[in-house]
């Protein structure tokens, strides 16, 4: 058993190299424009968190980055190629996406769920290779789900379920991983658990991670880069210390707050004072 | 943990208890071909196939000139005497063969539609296939003129063709009306129910216009029956299945990913809209072919996939087991319709009598689980 989860598969790699970019992207649901002329570049091996108030368009942006939504103008570029003109299966081998609170069919076991992650690597004749087998086994092991492999997903707790989905994303073996609020509905210790897992995917597996998060303190703690959005516009971008300023919190979140160093990690920590009325 | 002890795994440090719902996966490999399966996914089809052979033989044996089960089986493998051979192969087998083929088509179609719609209440009946076929068939009988049409009802090519056209046109209409940048299963079911009601009204109107002989013939057809069905129906159905069965099996892999919902399926590399259209096309064609051959036999496509998924376990109706169970149900119901009851009834009445309580149970049990 020497086969391991491939670390990287494409050639467009190396620090500083742009893997995924939004180029003047305009996103709309019908006549309702949610994101307008937004530019964003995500470099190889980066860990980015997109933050912003409810309805600012961060999940919509993530969907467009993951090819789930077609921009009305501008384009999303994956490894130098317009993502909308790249075949779905090719995208799925490089870019994995975990939607917010995905639903597993009733009765599907964890092992089956994780195995579905191999779909983009399979064909009808070659439904299940020994590579698939070892990748799935390792993904289960790596996410501590091996013991629960034969359980139905709907019988798991919220935290376990999220782990199972991350395990599937790991088995998909993509360089890039987009997660839409992976900590929703989880208690604090399970939020930490999930984010630790994502951080390990980034650190040990070299995955490029983009995550939409609500909790600013956790975003600052785990992500190396923050992107702050408001009303469909990118307001600030940079390291957590550069982005999470008291001024930005007032501008973007209408929040009067102090920003102090996190006593554990030294990353910026937001202590709310009150909501600003404007 | 409420897990009960099933089989402790020896020699591993894993926890000794296994969850009651655990179902281990196995891998099947033959050269470049490989797939995963669970044991019950293989045992269930094998058992159902054995039952199907038995019930088919019983059905062939029953009639004005009864033939013993062993003689039927001997004849089926080519060892019977000439008299039995004539009765079995020429007179009685065609009816059973049509029953088997119709059941396979309906079971498969139901499994495809239910997986696609992510809804156990969905079936080709709900898509309007059966009602549309009825409109087509009754229109030919009632408007086609005279009782000669009714007399040539089962042999003529006009009626099955009209049923086929009615089924395909209605399903196309339902899909078009339910379409919104893609297909939502719930919406599909709702639109399907509406269109089906319109079709039923049309059928009733045609029946009212028709004279009594035509109406009677049409009524038997609407119920779904294997009476007087033979090689004329079996041949086109075989051809349809030769194309559609492999198509359904190829789609099986895509169906597994489509089950998740559009976003997840798309991020797994599925072209969702194209795949959905393909699944629907195969499912509708299967149901339409079955209806054209035997009339709309109700509830088979609805009930069979759900029984199959409960037997095999897993998260979606298994295609092969659904196909075989469909055949078993149709042939079995036909046997009951012909022999157990004092009057020979159309098979569709028996499936409806079995299917309706099942439908009620399905609605009640789902409601209590969700709320």
TrEMBL record, chain A:
Record protein name field: ABC transporter ATP-binding protein
Coarse class of the protein's main subcellular location: membrane
Organism classification: Bacteria, Bacillati, Actinomycetota, Actinomycetes, Geodermatophilales
Keywords on record: ATP-binding, Cell membrane, Ion transport, Iron, Iron transport, Membrane, Nucleotide-binding, Transport
Gene source species: Goekera deserti
Membrane topology per record: Peripheral membrane protein
Pfam families recorded: ABC_tran (PF00005)
One term under GO cellular component: plasma membrane
Signal sequence range: none
Domain ABC transporter residue range list: 20-256
PANTHER family assigned: IRON(3+)-HYDROXAMATE IMPORT ATP-BINDING PROTEIN FHUC
Any GO BP annotation: iron ion transport
Location within or outside the cell: Cell membrane
Molecular function in Gene Ontology: ATP binding; ATP hydrolysis activity
TrEMBL record, chain B:
Region (Disordered): 1-30
Any one GO molecular function term: transmembrane transporter activity
Keyword entries, A-Z: Cell membrane, Membrane, Transmembrane, Transmembrane helix, Transport
Taxonomy, superkingdom: Bacteria
Coarse class of the protein's main subcellular location: membrane
Signal peptide per UniProt: none
Listed GO biological process terms: siderophore-iron import into cell
Annotated compartments: Cell membrane
Record carries keyword Lyase: no
Membrane-traversing stretches: 42-60, 96-117, 129-154, 161-179, 185-207, 234-258, 278-305, 343-364
Compositional bias per record (Polar residues), positions renumbered to this chain: 1-10
Membrane topology: Multi-pass membrane protein
Keyword GTP-binding: no
Biased composition (Basic and acidic residues): 16-25
A Pfam family matched in the record: FecCD
Gene Ontology terms: cellular component: plasma membrane
Family recorded in the similarity comment: Belongs to the binding-protein-dependent transport system permease family. FecCD subfamily.
Stated name of the protein: Iron ABC transporter permease
């Amino acid at each position: 058993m020497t086969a391991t989860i491939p670390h990287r598969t494409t050639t467009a790699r190396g620090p500083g190299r742009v893997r995924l970019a939004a180029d003047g992207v305009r996103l709309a649901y019908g006549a309702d424009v949610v994101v307008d002329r937004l530019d964003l570049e995500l470099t190889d091996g980066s860990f980015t968190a997109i933050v912003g108030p409810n309805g600012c368009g961060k999940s919509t942006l993530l969907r467009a980055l993951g090819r789930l939504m077609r921009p009305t103008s501008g384009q999303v570029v994956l490894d130098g190629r317009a993502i909308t003109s790249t075949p779905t299966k090719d995208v799925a081998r490089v870019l994995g996406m975990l939607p917010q609170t995905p639903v597993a069919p009733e009765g599907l076991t964890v092992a089956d769920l994780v195995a579905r992650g191999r779909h983009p690597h399979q064909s009808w004749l070659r439904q299940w290779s020994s590579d698939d087998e070892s990748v799935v086994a390792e993904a289960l092991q790596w996410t501590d789900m091996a013991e629960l492999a034969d359980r139905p997903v709907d019988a798991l707790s919220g935290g376990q379920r999220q782990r199972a989905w991350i395990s599937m994303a790991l088995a998909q073996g993509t360089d890039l991983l987009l997660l839409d609020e992976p900590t929703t509905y989880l208690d604090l210790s399970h939020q930490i658990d999930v984010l630790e897992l994502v951080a390990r995917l980034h650190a040990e597996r070299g995955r490029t991670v983009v995550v939409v998060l609500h909790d600013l303190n956790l975003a600052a703690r785990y992500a190396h880069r923050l992107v702050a959005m408001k009303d469909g516009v990118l307001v600030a971008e940079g390291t957590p210390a550069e982005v999470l300023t008291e001024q930005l919190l007032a501008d973007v979140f209408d929040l009067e707050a102090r920003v102090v160093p996190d006593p554990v990690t030294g990353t910026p920590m937001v202590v709310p004072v009150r909501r600003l009325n404007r | 943990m409420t897990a009960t002890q099933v089989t402790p795994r020896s020699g591993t440090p894993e926890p000794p208890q296994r969850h009651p719902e655990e179902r281990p996966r196995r891998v099947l490999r033959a050269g470049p071909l490989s797939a995963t399966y669970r044991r019950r996914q293989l045992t269930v089809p094998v058992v159902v196939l054995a039952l199907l052979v038995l019930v088919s033989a019983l059905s062939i044996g029953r009639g004005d000139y009864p033939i013993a089960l062993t003689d039927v089986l001997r004849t089926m493998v080519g060892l019977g005497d000439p008299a039995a051979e004539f009765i079995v192969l020429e007179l009685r087998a065609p009816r059973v063969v049509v029953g088997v083929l119709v059941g396979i088509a309906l079971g498969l179609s139901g499994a495809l539609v239910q997986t696609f719609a992510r809804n156990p209440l969905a079936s080709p009946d709900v898509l309007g296939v059966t009602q549309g076929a009825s409109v087509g068939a009754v229109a030919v009988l009632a408007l086609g003129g005279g009782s000669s049409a009714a007399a040539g009802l089962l042999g003529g090519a006009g009626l099955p063709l009209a049923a086929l056209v009615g089924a395909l046109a209605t399903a196309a209409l339902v899909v078009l009306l339910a379409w919104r940048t893609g297909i939502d299963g719930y919406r599909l079911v709702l639109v399907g129910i509406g269109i089906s009601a319109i079709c039923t009204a049309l059928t009733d109107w045609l029946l009212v216009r028709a004279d009594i002989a035509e109406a009677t013939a049409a009524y038997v057809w609407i119920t779904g029956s294997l009476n007087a069905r033979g090689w004329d129906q079996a041949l086109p159905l075989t051809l349809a299945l030769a194309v559609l069965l492999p198509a359904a099996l190829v789609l099986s892999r895509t169906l597994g990913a489509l089950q998740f919902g559009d976003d997840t399926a798309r991020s797994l590399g599925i072209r969702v809209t194209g795949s959905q259209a393909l699944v629907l096309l195969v499912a509708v064609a299967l149901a339409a072919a079955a209806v054209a051959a035997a009339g709309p036999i109700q509830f088979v496509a609805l009930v069979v996939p759900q029984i199959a998924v409960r037997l095999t376990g897993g998260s979606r109706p298994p295609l092969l087991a659904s196909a075989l169970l469909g055949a078993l149900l149709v042939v079995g119901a036909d046997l009951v319709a012909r022999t157990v009851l004092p009057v020979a009834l159309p098979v569709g009445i028996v499936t409806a009598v079995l299917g309706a309580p099942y439908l009620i149970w399905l609605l009640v049990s789902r409601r209590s689980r969700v709320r």
